[in-house]
Amino acid sequence: MMWSARTKIGWSLVLAGAVLMALFAARYYTFDPANYFERQRAVYENQTLPLMLHISGMLFALLAGPFQFRPGLRRRHRAVHRALGKAYVAGAIVGAVGGLYMAQFSASGPPSDLGFALLAIGVLVTTTFGVVRIRQGMVQSHGEWMIRSYALIFAAITLRLYLPFLEKAFGEHDGYAIVAWACWLPNLAFAEWLIRSRQAAKSVRSGSRSPRSTARSTSTQHMPRDSARTLA
Ligand code: HEM
């Protein structure tokens, strides 16, 4: 399937966001506390190992993710899709476990602890479903879970986009507590909208009379186990 100009622009923006986030996070590899998030400097000095596992795992997933969504790469270079996919899953799991651990120390106490903890659990659940689905040969459902997984990981970028505005409107403490939720809930809603629009477009292309029923059946579409293994 050819991508529309709108999809290409959206994909480029996602990749640009991932690269900018990687450049932002690179400061942590200096291991110089002067470069750490100021309000959390003391915490990060005491928790350098889990923080760095979190950042490093997430960086892998964040940068590998956009390439996994390119249909050309999936079709023509399956081995690359599989290798990057494994790096994505490993990175997402290590990064999310690190994030879940770091959540207890987050800057605005229980409200932000809970927001980040649920986000980390969301990444673990959606990524695991993505892996399970491809192992079951359910290709479309695999792609849909991976869209959810990446939308959650992309919270790192939306957090840093919204934070200055939320801190201005609600103050440093409350703005940060709000962003711990606002950085991922709309991303998840966007992922659901995207998945449903793709299902509807697919059912229109396949000439179905009832887009909804086809959407339901295609999301559980099976592929022979051997073919699915070449993708997984
Ligand atoms: C999507 C799941 C994620 C969760 C649950 C999560 C969780 C956390 C938590 C709890 C902290 C400590 C926050 C605080 O001190 O208040 C943190 C910090 C940090 N995380 Fe994540 N994070 C996620 C994604 C990412 C991604 C994709 C990156 C990209 C590299 C990233 C990079 C960082 C960095 C650089 C910090 C240090 C704080 C700063 O300088 O802004 N995180 N994360």
Structure description:
The structure is a single chain. The chain has 232 residues and is mostly helical. The chain has one domain (5-231). Helix content is 80%, strand content 0%. It contains 11 helices and no strands. The chain has helices at residues 5-25, 41-46, 48-68, 71-76, 78-103, 110-135, 139-153, 155-182, 185-205, 211-218, 225-231. Helix 6 packs across helix 8 (155-182). It is globular. The two termini are 20 Å apart. Mean pLDDT is 91; it is low at 211-220 and 226-232. It binds protoporphyrin IX containing FE (HEM). Protoporphyrin IX containing FE (HEM) is lined by residues 21, 25, 28, 37, 40, 54-55, 58-59, 62, 96, 99, 102-103, 105-107, 116, 119-120, 123, 152-153, 155-156.
Give the helix tally. Answer: 11
Helix content: over 70%
Radius of gyration: 19 Å
Topology, number of strands: 0
User: Which term fits the overall shape?
Assistant: globular
Mean of pLDDT: 91
Element string (H = helix, E = strand): HHHHHHHHHHH
Name the structural class. mainly alpha
Quick summary:
The chain has helices spanning 5-25, 41-46, 48-68, 71-76, 78-103, 110-135, 139-153, 155-182, 185-205, 211-218, 225-231. The chain is an all-alpha fold.
List the helices and strands and how they pair.
Blueprint: H1 5-25, H2 41-46, H3 48-68, H4 71-76, H5 78-103, H6 110-135, H7 139-153, H8 155-182, H9 185-205, H10 211-218, H11 225-231
Helix pairs in contact: 1-3, 3-5, 5-6, 6-7, 6-8, 7-9, 9-10
Bound molecules: protoporphyrin IX containing FE.
The site of protoporphyrin IX containing FE has 25 residues, from helix 1, helix 3, helix 5, helix 6 and helix 7.
